[in-house]
Design brief:
The longest helix is centred in the C-terminal third of the chain and has 21 residues, at 355-375. The chain has 391 residues and is of the alpha/beta class. Helix content is 55%, strand content 14%. Strands 1, 2, 5, 6, 7, 8 and 9 form a seven-stranded mixed sheet that branches. A two-stranded parallel sheet has the order 3-4. The chain starts with 9 loop residues before the first strand and ends in a 5-residue tail after the last strand. It is flat and about 65 Å long.
Length: 391
C-alpha cells in the first residue's frame, strides 16, 4: 500500500484530486492573482492527444443556473408575490428543502445544475447553491455564491486523495445579509469567506465534473471540462493542479510540470500541486527539488488534522491500534470538535482493551454530535439558515 503522502491529489467542491485532486466546495482562500497564462494553455493544448483536443473543441454545454419551465412553475406556485424579499428567500429555501417541496437531500457527489437538483431532489452544497441562486434570481431576489475556507479534509479514493471545498449562498434581502448553508454538519468557527463570481462558480462546477470523469477513466472528457473551467476562471490554482495531474497520468511530464508550477505561482500554498510535483520530481530523479517540496509539504501536513486522521485510519486498517491511537490523538490535538476523530479513537482503545478510555472518547463524540445538531436547525426568523441532513 502506498503511503498517503505519496498518493496523487485533487480538489473538489463539496461539493479537488491530490495525486492530490481538489474539488470545488475547503482551503484558505486569497483573492485570485491576475496572471496571463494564454500561451501556456496553448502549449498544453498542442501537447495533449488528438482525442482530447477534439473533446475540448466539441464542448459540453453545462448551465448551472438555467431554469426549466417546470422549475419556473414550481416557484410561481410556492412563493407569494406580495411577500417582502426576506420572506421570499426564507420561503424559497424551505420550498427547496422541505419534504412537501423539492425535498432536497444531501448527496456528496451530486454536482448538479439547478435543473438537475430540482428534478432529482438531490445535490451537494454546489447543487443546492445552484438551485437556490437560480431560483432566487428567477424571482428577482438577490443571491450569490460564497466560498468558505475551513480545515481541508482529504479522503482516500482508490489511489487518489480527494480534498473537498465548500460553497454556500448569501443574500442581501430587506437590508439584512442572510447565509444559506447546505452541508451535513456546520462549519467550525474561525473560517473565512469570499464571494464567488458566477464565472468562478461555473469553474468549480466544471472542475467537479472533471474530477469525476478522471475517476471514471474518461480522460478526454476530463480535459475538456478542465479546459472549460480554466476558460471560466483562469486564475484558480487548484484547477491548474488538477489539470497537471491529468497530464501527468498521460505521461506528459513537461506540460504537467508547467501546470503544477502555474498553480503554485497563483497560490504558493496549494498542497495538491506541491504533492503532485514532488512525485513528478522523484520520478525524474530531481531529488533536491523533490526534497524541498517534501519539506514544505511536511510542514503543511503537520498542521492538517485530517492528515493525521488519515494516517490513523491506515494504521487501524493494518491492525496497528497503538499507532492508530497516536495518530488520532494528534488529529484531535489540532481539531478537537470532530466527532469522527473521537469515534475511531474509541474503537482503537477498544481494540487494545482500554474500555475506560474508549467510553470517554465515545461520550466526547456524542456530546459534539449533540451540540452540532442543536446548532444546525432552521430558525424563524434566522440570520443563518441551515438544514439538518441525514448522513
Amino acid at each position: 500500500m502506498k503511503r498517503i503522502a505519496q498518493s496523487p491529489a485533487i480538489y473538489l467542491l463539496t461539493t479537488s484530486l491530490l495525486v492530490p485532486l481538489t474539488l470545488g466546495g475547503c482551503a484558505t482562500h486569497q483573492e485570485p492573482l491576475v496572471r496571463e497564462n494564454v500561451d501556456l494553455r496553448q502549449i498544453i493544448h498542442e501537447a495533449v492527444p488528438a482525442s482530447w483536443r477534439a473533446a475540448a473543441e466539441a464542448g459540453e454545454e453545462v448551465s448551472p443556473l438555467a431554469v426549466s419551465p417546470e422549475l419556473r412553475e414550481f416557484l410561481d406556485s410556492r412563493i407569494r408575490g406580495t411577500a417582502d424579499d426576506r420572506d421570499k428567500m426564507l420561503a424559497l429555501t424551505r420550498a427547496i428543502v422541505d419534504r412537501d417541496g423539492v425535498g432536497l437531500t444531501y448527496k456528496a457527489n451530486a454536482t448538479y445544475t439547478a435543473i438537475e437538483s430540482f428534478e432529482s431532489s438531490e445535490g451537494n452544497c454546489l447543487g443546492f447553491s445552484n438551485l437556490l441562486v437560480a431560483s432566487a434570481r428567477e424571482l428577482g431576489l438577490n443571491a450569490n455564491y460564497e466560498l468558505v475556507s475551513h480545515s481541508m479534509r482529504w479522503d482516500k479514493v482508490d489511489d487518489v486523495l480527494v480534498a473537498t471545498l465548500h460553497v454556500r449562498v448569501t443574500s442581501l434581502s430587506s437590508g439584512r445579509r442572510m447565509v444559506f448553508d447546505f452541508y451535513p454538519q456546520p462549519i467550525e468557527p474561525g473560517f473565512s469567506t469570499r464571494t464567488l463570481t458566477d464565472r468562478e462558480a461555473l469553474a468549480h462546477h466544471l472542475n467537479n465534473l472533471a474530477a469525476e470523469a478522471m475517476q471514471d477513466g474518461d480522460n478526454a472528457r476530463a480535459y475538456a471540462l478542465l479546459n472549460d473551467a480554466i476558460d471560466a476562471a483562469p486564475h484558480t490554482a487548484f484547477i491548474w493542479s488538477n489539470l497537471g495531474l491529468l497530464l501527468s497520468r498521460q505521461d506528459l511530464e513537461q506540460v504537467a510540470e508547467n501546470a503544477y508550477n502555474e498553480a503554485l505561482t497563483l497560490a504558493p500554498d496549494t498542497p495538491s500541486a506541491m504533492s503532485n510535483l514532488q512525485t513528478l520530481y522523484f520520478q525524474q530523479g530531481r531529488l533536491d527539488e523533490a526534497k524541498e517540496l517534501r519539506r514544505q509539504l511536511a510542514a503543511y501536513r503537520d498542521r492538517n488534522p485530517y492528515h493525521h486522521f488519515a494516517l490513523g485510519e491506515e494504521a487501524f486498517e493494518k491492525a496497528d491500534y497503538k499507532q492508530a491511537i497516536r495518530h488520532f490523538k494528534d488529529a484531535i490535538d489540532r481539531k478537537n470538535k470532530e466527532p469522527e476523530f473521537w469515534m475511531l479513537l474509541a474503537e482503537s482503545y477498544e481494540k487494545v482493551g482500554n474500555a475506560r478510555a474508549a467510553s470517554r472518547a465515545i461520550r466526547k463524540a456524542e456530546s459534539i454530535k449533540d451540540a452540532k445538531v442543536a446548532s444546525y436547525k432552521i430558525d424563524d426568523p434566522p440570520t443563518k439558515l441551515g438544514t439538518r441532513i441525514k448522513r
